[in-house]
Each structure stands twice: as structure tokens, then as C-alpha cells.
Design a protein that fits this description.
14 helices, mainly alpha, about 325 residues, single chain
Amino acid sequence: MKGFTKYFIQKLLWYALAFFIALFLNFFLPRLIPGDPISVIVGRVMSGNVASETQERIYQSYVHEFGLDKPIIVQFFTYIGNIFKGNLGTSFSLYPLSVNEVIGSAVVWTIALQLPSILVGWIIGNLLGAAAAYRNGVFDKTIFPLSLFVSSIPYQCLAIILLYFFGVNLGWFPIGGGYSRTLLPSLSWTFILDVLHHYFLPFISLVLVTIGGQAIGMREMSIYELNTDYVTYCKMLGMKDKKIQKYVFKNAVLPQITGLAISLGSMVGGALVTEIVFGYPGLGTWLFNGIRQLDYPLIQGSTLIIALMVLLANFIMDMVYGLIDPRIKAAQMEEV
């Protein structure tokens, strides 16, 4: 285990470095967006003819409240200190709500949308891809081009197409939001059915693209496995096709499982544009609102959660590979 310990420490250090670089970019990049966030807030809260002195006092009070009157380096280290305390700051645009509260509720909506869509798309896509490879013929000639076409459509384009036809044109589904504004969140059947009604189009748009990508990947891996020596040997032994197909599926699905693990880890940051298109109350919508309103803490909090989940997913996969991949284990032994 000495080789793996060294491997673990090296990977941990690299990912820690990547995390601190992400923190640095996370703080400074939002501040490169042109505009003054405090002016946006003051302009929103002020109404009518207000004396310039009053506006200036309100402006300065907000600047002091959010700590923007301090040098940028002091703001940066304050931000780092708050991050390690679990404090993402106070939202500019939703003052006095904390970013923790906003993102906490948004992440629930994002996971509720993307987790089922990833799993359903992965299962259906792999089954279709495997079936296309095994059956060939008309089935393969239908599934492969269709999967290639669907997978090549960006999430947001498919979302806009579905929204236009089924929401705007036919009026079968709502055109935005997570639930009707006339309802209050509750566990009543009325609210649950309304949420599902709003949920359907974003869910389908994500599932269709996922199915296309997974079907193509599984088809290619299955065709590769079907042409290997062990399949030929099994056929020579007189094994039934169903049993051979089980072996082929088990081997072909391994890379797909890796892709699934990475997708699950990065799902908080995946397909955020779909949420924006549908106005779904997830992380993508809040990130878009934060950028539009120059809400630095909200932008920082959203992008931090995305970066953290992606890094964590990749780190876990590296550790799993370090334990099960013979090539990596051999490299570990050579370094000892």
C-alpha cells in the first residue's frame, strides 16, 4: 500500500492546488464584469426624486455593509476565511438573504432535475446501444443515426425547441418556473402535480440528449467486444448467444460506468443552460441572475459549488482507478 499512499498524496496535493486556483478565479473573475453592483442595488431600491446626498449616503452604507470599501486583497482573504467557515456571504440582489440559503434551495431543485435525467438517460441509452450492436440490421441503422442526431443537439437548443412546440405553440406545458406562482410550496397533491407538470419538459430535454450520447458510446464498445478473441472462442465452444451477450455487456458497460460516475459528480454544473431556458429555480437560473445583477457573492457561491463537485468527482474516480487499474498499480510499484 506504500505505492498507493504516495499516489493518493500526490493526487490530493494536485487537487488541492486546483481548488485554490478555482478559489482565486472564483473571486476575481466576477469583478471583471463591467458595472457597479452597488449602483444596481441603489437604483432598484430608490424611487422618485431623491436628493443626491441621500443617494450617496445609501450608496456608501451598502458599500460598507458588503465590505467593498476595503482593499481588494483584504476582501480576498476575508472571502477565503469565510469559505473555510462555510459562509458564502450575503447576496447583493436578495439582501439580506445569505448565499447559503439561496444555493441550498437551488441545489435541491438542480439535483431533483438532473439526477433522475442522468440515470434514466444512462440506462435507456446503454440498453439501446447494446441492442443496436447485437441486432445490427434495420434496428442499428435506425438507432445509430437517431442517437447521433440527438446527441449532437446542444442542451439549450433542444430545450428551446421543446419549449416552443409544447409550451408556446401547443400550450400543453408551462413555459417557465418550477411551479405556478399562485401556489405555495406544500406536500399537497395539487402542488406535487403542478411541480411535475413544470418538471416534464426540462427533464425530457436532458434525458433525450443523454440517451443519444450513451447509446453511441455503448454501441461502439459492444461492437469492439463482439470482435474480440474471447467472443470467437465462446462461439466455438457452442455457447448460447444470450450468455455471450451478457459477457459482452459486462465488459462494454465498464467505461460507461466511469462516465456515469463523472456525470453524477458534475451534475450540479451540468446543463445549467437548460435551467435558464425553462426558468427552472435551480443553480443555473440563480447563477444567471447573479451575473445579470452583478451579485458577486451569488456568482462566487454558485461557481464554487460547481467547481467543488467536479473536482471531488474526478478525485474519487482517480482513487478508484488507483485501486483497480493494473496499469496504475504497476506504475505505483515502480515509484516505490
